[in-house]
Fold this protein.
Amino acid sequence: MQLIAEAVLEVRAMEPKQGTEAWYVLQQLEHLAENASSSSSAREVANSTRALGRLWIDLADEKSLYAQRISEIVRVHQNLLRAERRSRSNKTMEPTR
């Protein structure tokens, strides 16, 4: 959540004008932040993260600060999803007593 909050603050500091690339990034980041604050698992924010990832793919400036932040957020989210899957998998493989 901290990573998302930092990204929101950084893009807000750019004061993006409505309709610009940075403005759309900010909208997606704020939506993700809202979802993440009320979620208890990475799976619950998967759709918001995918939407942000699709926007990242379409960005013209791949070297921009927000493009780098999006890349990092998507990567961390994928790692969290993997960890959740492993955890669920391990629980189903535990022997019952």
Notes: The chain has one domain: 2-93.
